[in-house]
Amino acid sequence: MEDSAVPKEVDWREFSIEQLIRLMGMSAIGLVLLIFLFLIKEGAPALLEVPLSNLMGQRWYPTFDIYGLAPLILGSLLVTAGAIAISLPLGVATAIFIGEIAPEWVREILKPVIEIIAGIPSVVVGFIGLQIVSPLVREFTGAPTGLTALTGVLLLAYMALPTIISIAEDALDAVPQSYRNAAYALSATEWQTIWRVVLPAARPGIITAVMLGVGRAIGETMTVMMVAGNAARMPLGLDAFLRPVRTMTATIAAEMGEVARGSTHYHVLFTVGLALFIVTFLINLVAAASIFRRERGGGGRFLA
Amino acid sequence: MNNTVTPGKAKLVLNDVSFYYGDQPALKQINLQIYANEILAIFGPAMSGKSTLLRILNRLSDLAEEGRLEGEVLLDGKNIHDPDVSVIQLRTRVGIVFAVPVPLPLSIRENVTYGPLLRRGRSKGELDDLVESSLTAAALWDEVKDRLPEPATALSGGQQQRLCLARVLALEPEVILLDEPCSGLDPISTMKVEEALLALKESHSIVIVPHNVQQASRIGDKAAFLLMGELVEYGVAEQIFTRPKDPRTDDYITGRFG
Amino acid sequence: MNVSRYTMQKVAFAIITTAAISVVIPLVLVIGYIVAQGIGALSWEFISAIPRNGMREGGIYPALVGTLWLTIGTAVTSIPLGVGAAIYLAEYAADSWFTRTIRLAIINLAGVPSVVYGLFGLGLFVIFLRFGMSILAGSLTLGIMTLPVIISTTEQALVAVPQSFRVVNASLGGTTWQGIRKVILPQALPGIMTGVILGLERAAGETAPILFTVAAFFLPRLPHSVFDQTMALPYHLFVISTQVPGMPIRIQYGTALVLMAFVLTMNLLATLIRRHYRRRRQW
């Protein structure tokens, strides 16, 4: 909406406020570019200093100038996949519980609880992992230490839950009540309605929830650094979950402190960061695009 | 179009006005004159462009994305789309009351003083007088004079609508536009609003889109029949409702289509 | 079908309810455990004293203060810019490919891992702009990390305010900014505050972004200026639980308790604000 020819006393104030606010809006996009460019600036030298064959190798020994990224990438993937395998069913089930089954008073309690879970700092989760979960894992699986990929998976699953729950809940909520009513009219039970009508209708939203959960899990740093063992080895074989593993995020956090600025190692770590940025960016892009497609925001500002 | 109004000094004049939403024409070549001190009722079936027509008069139509105007609208002889015309000021001279009352989330008093406070500050005394006179003219003062600090949402639907009328009156406008102001109101509230309007026409131009033909014939001095964006007939109310010139007007009034 | 539909339903609902319970129980247990184990360490001395003996005795005061400073710094960095950008997107910008791109960029920024922000902060603020490891660098990094959250929640809060108010404001002769200032912003304020508090809560608890930008472990004194390094609660907990041999377990739990208390208080605050204003809402 344009305010053409506004009386003088309001005009330049309105104009400057609008410009200021526009500036703030622009800086948001500028920031994304800035981050991206900076990561490239610091990470690109690595691609020049380290041959590609090295980077694609299976061993990560920076002290010997061996920068195989595979164990780190696989570490991240393994832990993320495991976490999602747990939190997807658990999260969707909880979302169904909140949205379709629970009475109002339960919902009022559950929602803040989920928010609290989302708010637990990752270092606290890692701490609890060290103190409680890790010994338990060692007890129950006979692994030599409790610092395994499995421990990381369990904790990550818990951390990804709130994301999956809230978005899945939105997706279920968005399914029109008329769908459910139609099913009831055909004498379906509540469960049949949920399983056969509501869930399939909410599927795009649930996929979005999973993607954002994946983004959350891949990006988690402190928790995995504290409990997943931090050994940069290829997580292959059936016992991969019971061995220590290291993620891309933990690698950056663990090694950045002791690296010489400007060294090759430094640049490689930035490359890893860049890779993380791109991956999460893409995940969020796809997830957001599907959200946008469903709610056509803006539009129709005319009060009729 | 059948026009039986003698042209004189009109307050608002529409010359060949057309309005489009994107490619869809909402109003086609409207020619209309609105005079001071009388009520013009614009009636017609739904989706005929009546609301659009009202909004053109105070350039609220500018808010419509993809809206496009052709022709000219003159207020006191001046084109309201001239670059040196202040839209802000225009809207204080031509005020509008919507079909659904929208009380602002403020107190009753603050709702009424909202418009005046947008411009130069006035003294508290002036504002108090303005509040009382506006609410009185809207036939609401007696009911709320002891409740001014209360939230406006505490009022009933009929009272809220009269509050919206008072809000517009506080701007001290010259023209008052009303878009189905009584739809959703009970008959008593409707009567109160209509009485208020009849009193107000002594000092304002009023353009109202009534929600039925009966209301138009009750309070209208002039009437205009809008059908599918086209101004079919326009003239003295009494004549339009008893001896319409156009068969379509006659059909609509007698209820052959609605 | 041997099993009746209703039996199926009972089974399914039982499973689902169990799932929901199993989500809640760990939280309750964890909080309970931290409180139980950590409450013993809590004392006035713990909160107000400086650590001694390689952090194994004394208090965590500098870390508390450090976290407080960083939170304030984050607020200063992210709130004006974030709210401003949100107002622009919600009230001024027409819906176009440009604004859609901005919104997309913001959503994506929200999903970037915190450690990448730390990396960015290191490269830009610590090294390139030569702020060194400092409260300044840390606050800016955390601020940028919090920005997307604040922009999103503020925009949501603004858009939730009914469009009719804007139209009424315009019809009474108000400019866009007048409408924002007098009606829209006040109505959106509870939502904005909730978003801000939750954003700051997250920033206060994050470790990765401050690892390379500000956090120090052995710094048993308070920072003198924004160019100083400082201790911080999350980082403190991290180091004492992983890298200090002989660290009394009680102190570790005590530190975790303080951090959790900080976070939970903010959470509670946000929830209370949201509840209170939802009830008083006039639309």
Count of beta strands of chain A? 2
The percentage helix of chain A is over 70%
In spatial order, strands of the major sheet of chain B run: 1-11-10-4-9-8-7
**What composes the largest sheet of chain B?**
7 strands, mixed
Shape, per Cα inertia axes of chain A:
globular
CATH homologous superfamily assignment of the largest domain in chain A:
MetI-like
Based on DSSP secondary structure assignment, what is the total number of beta strands of chain B?
11
Rg from alpha-carbon coordinates of chain B:
18 Å
Strand order of the largest sheet of chain A: 1-2
CATH class of the domain at 2-99 and 174-253 in chain B: Alpha Beta
Structural class of chain B: alpha/beta
How far is the first residue's CA from the last residue's CA of chain A?
16 Å
- How does CATH name the architecture of the largest domain in chain A? Orthogonal Bundle
> Biggest β-sheet of chain A: count, sense, barrel?
2 strands, antiparallel
Residue fraction in strands of chain A: under 5%
How is the secondary structure organized here?
The complex is a heterotrimer of chains A (304), B (258) and C (283).
Chain A: H1 8-49, H2 52-55, E1 60-61, E2 66-67, H3 70-101, H4 104-119, H5 122-141, H6 149-174, H7 177-185, H8 190-201, H9 203-219, H10 222-227, H11 248-255, H12 264-294
Helix pairs in contact in A: 1-12, 3-6, 3-9, 4-6, 5-6, 6-9, 7-8, 9-12, 11-12
Chain B: E1 2-3, E2 12-21, E3 24-34, E4 39-43, H1 50-57, E5 67-75, E6 78-79, H2 87-93, E7 94-97, H3 108-117, H4 124-137, H5 141-144, H6 157-169, E8 175-179, H7 187-200, E9 205-209, H8 213-219, E10 222-227, E11 230-236, H9 237-242, H10 247-253
Parallel strand pairs in B: 1-11, 4-9, 4-10, 7-8, 8-9
Antiparallel strand pairs in B: 2-3, 2-5, 5-6, 10-11
Helix pairs in contact in B: 3-4, 3-6, 4-6
Chain C: H1 5-38, H2 44-48, E1 51-52, E2 57-58, H3 61-92, H4 97-111, H5 114-128, H6 135-160, H7 163-171, H8 176-205, H9 208-211, H10 233-242, H11 249-279
Antiparallel strand pairs in C: 1-2
Helix pairs in contact in C: 1-11, 3-6, 3-8, 4-6, 5-6, 6-8, 7-8, 8-11, 10-11
